[in-house]
Amino acid sequence: MLLRPEDLPQVANEMMNMLHTEELEVFNRFHDAIVAKDIEKIDEIFPEILFDVEDHFSTEEQMMEAQGYGFYQMHKNDHDTMRKKLAKFHMRWEKLKSPTELQNFLENDFKQWIKLHISKWDSEAALHLNAAG
Ligand SMILES: [Fe+2]
Ligand SMILES: [Fe+2]
Known about the structure:
By secondary structure, the protein is mostly helical. The chain has helices spanning 14-35, 39-66, 72-96, 99-132.
């Protein structure tokens, strides 16, 4: 298991919490397939990962933009950094089919990133979005 539910901080916006819970579920399935070095399963789940992350990021961005949220661009920049990494690792996966590379990325980068991103950016945005109601 990559992330336990208690690893992800709850924020003051239920839509965002729901997106995070969904993400946790998909990433844990992805991680299981990676640890098992199940190439077919990884091939199957990778598009789901890309779709789910895009859904998560763009939903948050639309909510922030609609409210004229002041830190929109900084928050989006942090999403964009992760979008680029995922696109890069997907390209490398298509060529190399290396579960080890993906495992290192998930365990040493994505896992810390998502916890920090939620506690730093999403928590702040959630407070503002709720206040703007
Ligand atoms: Fe988020
Ligand atoms: Fe975010």
